[in-house]
Amino acid sequence: MPAPQLQVVRKASFKATPWKNGGGVTHEALRVPQSGDPFRWRVSVAHIDASGPFSEFAEYNRKMVLLQGAGVELRFADGMNRSLRTWATSWSSTVPCRLSANCSRVPVWT
Asked: Contact, 28 vs 18, CB < 8 A?
C-alpha cells in the first residue's frame, strides 16, 4: 500500500460562510464530500462575533478548542453551562452562546 500524502491547506483557500443568525462566520478548511449537504466530516475555524444561538448539528460530534479570545459559554436546556476552552460534545438542539469578551475563534471538527 502506498504511503499517504500530506496536503498543505492554506487559510487563503478556506471557504467562508456567514452564520444564518449573523453572529459569526465559519471558515471551512476541509470537507468530505467537498460540496453538498450533508457532509460526512469537516474541519473549520469559526469566528464568533456576537453572543447568540449556537447552531444545532445533532448528527455530528463536535470537537472544539479555543484559539483566540476570552472564551465562550454554552448554556444547555438541562441547566448545564460549559465554558469553552477545550471541549468535545454533540447536542440535539440550538444552544445559547455567550461570549466572555470580544470575539473568539475556534476550530471545529464535525
From this structure: no
- What DSSP element (H or E) covers 82? strand 81-84
Mean of pLDDT values over 64-79: 79
Kindly list the structural domains of the chain, giving each domain's residue range(s) and its CATH number in brackets, ordered by start.
15-109 (2.60.120.10)
Pairing between β-strand 41-48 and β-strand 15-18 as defined by DSSP bridges: unpaired
Q: What is the pLDDT of residue 110?
A: 46
Task: Return the percentage of the chain with pLDDT > 90, whole number.
Answer: 8
For residues 46-73, b (16+ Cβ closer than 10 Å) or e, as one string? bbbbeebebeeeeebeebbebeebeebe
